[in-house]
Amino acid sequence: MTQAAEIVGLVEYREGDGPNITIRRGPIEVDTTDTDATLGWTDGEARGSAAMPLADFKRYVEEGAIVLRGAD
Question: Where do the domains of the chain lie, and which CATH numbers do they carry?
Answer without folding.
Answer: 2-71 (2.30.30)
